[in-house]
Amino acid sequence: MILVIDDDIAVRTSLILLLKSEGYDAAGTDEPAEALKIIKKKAPELVILDLNFSIDTSGQEGMELLAKIKAFNSAIPVILITGWGSIELAVKGMKLGANDFINKPWNNEYLIQSVKTLLDLQDKKTEHHTRKQLDKTYNFENIVGEDPRMLDILETIGRVASTDASVLIMGESGTGKELIAEAIHQNSLRRNKPFIKVNLGGISTSLFESEMFGHIRGAFTDARFDRVGRFEMANKGTIFLDEIGDLDAGSQVKLLRVLQDRTYEVLGSSRTKTVDTRVVCATNKNLNEMVARGTFREDLLYRINLITVYLPALRERPKDIPLLVSFFINNLKQIYNRPNLSVAPSAMKWLQQLPLPGNIRQLKNLVERSILVSRRDELSIDDFRSQLELSPVKKGNIQLPGVGTLTLEEVEVEMIKRALDHHKNKISKAAAALGLTRSALYRRLEKYQIPYDEAED
Known about the structure:
Blueprint: E1 2-5, H1 9-21, E2 26-29, H2 32-42, E3 46-50, H3 60-72, E4 78-82, H4 87-95, E5 100-103, H5 108-123, H6 131-137, H7 148-161, E6 167-170, H8 177-186, E7 195-199, H9 208-213, E8 214-215, E9 227-228, H10 230-233, E10 238-242, H11 249-261, E11 263-265, E12 272-274, E13 278-283, H12 287-293, H13 298-304, E14 307-310, H14 321-335, E15 342-343, H15 345-352, H16 359-373, E16 378-379, H17 381-388, E17 393-395, E18 398-400, H18 408-422, H19 427-434, H20 438-447
Parallel strand pairs: 1-2, 1-3, 3-4, 4-5, 6-13, 6-14, 7-10, 10-13, 15-16
Antiparallel strand pairs: 8-9, 11-12, 17-18
């Protein structure tokens, strides 16, 4: 049974009829005391709570009831119903243990989707499986690892994949966040629909709306033809928002709107479009710290992290290094037509001792470079050491990335971003530091879509 708590009889009746039309047993009440009696007696599977269900609009009564529900049974999922004006109130509710918040006026399809997702997550109890058992149930063919923490992560994403729960993947660069996002999609009911990847760190503020929501011809000076946005491309599928921690404040608000209401407007058009997409986000930044500093919206964080996955660094799971090396070797045997390739046992142990700050990406590049340079079929410590010394090296105060870890284009983008940051977006100074003219720097900013707010020189 789903319990709806709201003093507005029209809202209560609408929600109950909606839930019953979807096959759920639903009941309602407008009294906090009565609500607690029902919860203690009938143990509802889920509660929908309007924080302002009295004349007082402070939400205090709703907060107190939420706290009592969670104190009685913290496992009962609670969805808050709120207006845009009280988003701050909803965030406080999330801190008290609420599972989701929905705006008024709500979208019926999205509300039912939230209900279904939370009930599905309740039904899927955590069990610990071996890697072989997980592979029988799920498709994890591109993910290598048997470390207990990795098995827990695979267990989690396997359970949540079939729901529409938003997932936030956190971890250092090179830990395999994109692979986890792809695994969530491949094990979901949306697997035969699009999987759209978006690197938010590479989209400038001025192009954000056009890139994400599309534009119509003539929407702005250079809009010579209609453009389909990433959200429309991902309709019925999954959208993977990588580097979400790099998003500026203005773009965060625009993203929150579409994640909240599942609606958006194409740039240059007043027509509202609805989107049905699963959202998976990733970042190598600490979003909680960013929230504390005021550089990341707290309400956006709660919208994207119904489930949070923390990927461990490779140095934290050294027993997986031999598995990864073997996986890379088997692939490279075919690519380079060297069927007898292997790694000496001593070299494998040596690799397990490395700090590998670039994680899986660095290990893969190290293995591939060593194969390219060595003429022997059995790779030794010396083969790997000679390539490791190229990555990263210091020359004076200059630290260069290892060969193969970054492309020349990625190095150029990083240096431009650093120069802009160092010179506080003063284009003339940044250009001089990079050995470029102002116009040459502008061309690169446009080419790589690097966001910047030009300061006065």
